[in-house]
Each structure stands twice: as C-alpha cells, then as structure tokens.
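To the team - 4-(aminomethyl)benzoic acid complex, inputs and output below.
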Amino acid sequence: MHAPLFICLATALLLVSAWAHPAQQQDRSSPNGRIVGGYATHVAVHPHQISLRRKAINSPQNAFTHICGGSVICGGKYVVTAAHCIIASVPSQYKVVAGTSRRNGSDGVIVSVSEIIMHEKYNPGTYDHDIAVLVLSSPFPVNNFTIKAIELASEDVEAGSISTITGWGTTSSGGTASDQLLAVDVPIVSNEVCNEDYAGLITDSMLCAGVRGVGGKDACQGDSGGPLIVDNKLHGVVSWGYGCAHPEYPGVYARVSYLREWLDSKVTCS
Ligand code: 4AZ
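Output:
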C-alpha cells in the first residue's frame, strides 16, 4: 500500500478504536482519578440525580444493573437522560432509582418506566441531539431533600463558568466504576474552541466542558445521561468524548438550552 495512505488509514483506525462513543472504548492515555478527578458526594447534595438500571430482555433472571445517570425533572414525573443510553430498548427493561448515593444499593425509591421518548433527530453516528425523556409509571415522591426536580436551563451558559458533573461512572477511561456518587467541577468550553479539538464534530445541540491543556477532570463511562449543572440548573446531559479527562479533548454534553423547546414539547410539568 501507498505509505501516506497507510499512515492515514492506521491513524483513522487508532482514532476509531480509542473513540469514547459509549461503553466500550479504551483510552490508554487517560490519567487515573475519580468520576475522573472528582470527589465523593451525596444524593442530598444532588437530589435530582438518578441511577438508570436495566436488565437484558433475553435474561430476565438477571438483576437490574446501573447503565447510566439521569436527572429528575418536572416535579418528579419524568427523568431526562441521554438517547444513547436507551436506544433499542423497551420501558419494561428499566428501573429508575432516586434518593440513593449508591450505584448498587437497593435503598432509595425505585420506579418503573412507562414510556421512552427519544429525540426524533438523535443520530447514533454523530451523537447529535443525544437526549431522551423517560415517563415514569408513578412520579417520584419529591421530598426536596434526597429527591428533587432540577430546573432546566433556558439560556446558554458562558464559557469559563464552572459546571458540576455527577455520576457513578468509571474513575478512568476503561477503568472501574464507583459505588459512591462522585462529583467533579469543570469549566465550560465554547463550541468554537471545542470544535478546534474535535475537528468540527461539535454541533449546536452539544456543549463542552474540560480543563483544556491540563485534563484530569471529566465524566466517563457510566456517567452518561447524568447531569451537568451550573447555578443549580441543568445545562448538560453527559454524552460522549474522546476517552476521559484527556487534556486535548473536553467532555461533550447534550446542550439543554438548545434542546429546551423539544423538552417543553414532550413534558407537562403541572
Ligand atoms: C461514556 O462512554 C462516556 N469523557 C461518557 C462521557 C465521556 C466519555 C465517555 C466524556 O458514557
């Protein structure tokens, strides 16, 4: 094969194999840490955080296991999560657990899902419009202590603002998951700057956060669907990234302000 073509193909293969499109990627260059680079927290500090648990349709004897995070909205009637978390599944495969700080516990309040509402424009190839709403079979008993709805952002957040991301995901790319809820504080990166890192893959429905040039703090596998908050408003839904906590690649989130009209059209909060 032509040498330049070979190098090109080999690079493309390497990139594809390290790409953080959910659940299966390995990025050997990622540093070790927690959520990545975060700290232990509690659901009473983030009472909108839920654990989405699924069981395989072909092995009903298996337990429900944590697959993604999510956020309680609309007075406890719905959960917002990532579309890539629930693609090709049915409501009966899920339980949603609120009011717990544990990934594997049976504490908290457990409800079923009656309907999955995927964004009609979700693109599994590009992660554009990576958002979905779960209609709960009964609303969560909001106690404003360990279970509470989060307000949806309607305005874009400023680049440089410090956001907080929470979840039970892995503490390094391809690493082990945390049983305790973890949080990490990471600055918002503008789409323009983020697109320099991601060669134009960042669309209007996405939002970036990361410590550019430094890395070490990020969401990771299993945090997907979970919240990115600024000033107690939901601004992002954990979506994708190149590995985790990489200095050159911020984490990518679904942009709630951009998707707000769609959300409003799907939920009735009162
Ligand atoms: C994932 O696979 C995932 N570093 C979530 C977030 C990020 C990467 C991967 C961002 O669920």
